[in-house]
Design brief:
By secondary structure, the protein is mainly alpha-helical. It folds into two domains: 152 residues, Ribonuclease III domain (Ribonuclease iii, N-terminal Endonuclease Domain, Chain A, Orthogonal Bundle), CATH 1.10.1520; 65 residues, Double Stranded RNA Binding Domain, CATH 3.30.160.20. 59% of the residues lie in helices and 10% in strands. It is built from eleven helices and three strands. Strands 1-2-3 form a three-stranded antiparallel β-sheet.
């Protein structure tokens, strides 16, 4: 059986969410696979994340459709991608202090897992799934929109998460500087190669790493875009 969160912590998070979620489902939504694996293969939040992704997508799609009747489908799709991106959901999670409630394995704990975009975003979707199972679709939709609507008001803030390389090209054009320049290096054996990209746009410089050149460039582009808009 999944561990329950401490009552005070659960009450604090429930108050921020504004919806009553079953204690076991809430604990499950906050359990990262690293914690589960280190504790004998407990259930973790990936199935709830799968469900919550659909809850999120439908609620946001319906809201965009109703709110922007004159916006074409392509633009609506871009807005949706921006506000349901990992970057956007991670910011939502930080806004409710979700990181403090997560159950993480030792490795993730030691490497800053409580503030990792991917872990925070996945847990946010898992919460949406837990709300759906506990309180029904209407309550889950209400939770999604309460947290996501501020992002819908400013979709450009998260557009870089969808296509960061294009976003930094647009940044260079706005600044009137040369096109983005990437310097790529790599380390490690062929079967476990790691790439590092250093990106320069005008006076801005940022780096990113990944298991491919493209992944490293994307990471560097997103970091630079965020730094430029900080």
């Amino acid at each position: 059986m999944t561990e329950r969160t401490e009552p005070s912590a659960r009450e604090s998070l429930t108050e921020k969410l504004g919806v009553e979620i079953d204690a076991e489902l809430l604990a499950l939504a906050l359990t990262h696979r690293s914690y589960a694996y280190e504790n004998g293969g407990l259930p973790h939040n990936e199935r709830l994340e799968f469900l919550g992704d659909s809850v999120l997508g439908l609620a946001v799609t319906a809201q965009l459709y109703e709110r922007f009747p004159d916006v074409p489908e392509g633009d609506l799709a871009k807005r949706r991608s921006a506000v349901v991106s990992t970057l956007a959901l991670a910011d939502v999670a930080r806004g409710i202090g979700l990181g403090a409630h997560l159950k993480l394995g030792r490795g993730e704990e030691q490497t800053g897992g409580r503030d990792k975009d991917s872990i925070l975003a996945d847990a946010t979707e898992a919460l949406f799934g837990a709300a759906f199972l506990s309180a029904g679709r209407a309550a889950a939709d209400s939770l999604v929109l309460r947290l996501i609507t501020p992002l819908i008001e400013d979709p450009a803030r998260y557009g870089a998460a969808v296509d960061p390389k294009t976003s930094v090209q647009e940044l260079a054009a706005r600044l009137g500087v040369d096109a983005p320049s990437y310097a790529i290096t790599s380390t490690g054996p062929d079967h476990d190669r790691r790439f590092r990209a250093v990106l320069t746009v005008g006076e801005y410089t940022a780096s990113g790493t990944g298991t491919s050149k493209k992944q490293a460039e994307m990471a560097a582009a997103l970091t630079l875009w965020r730094d430029a808009h900080a």
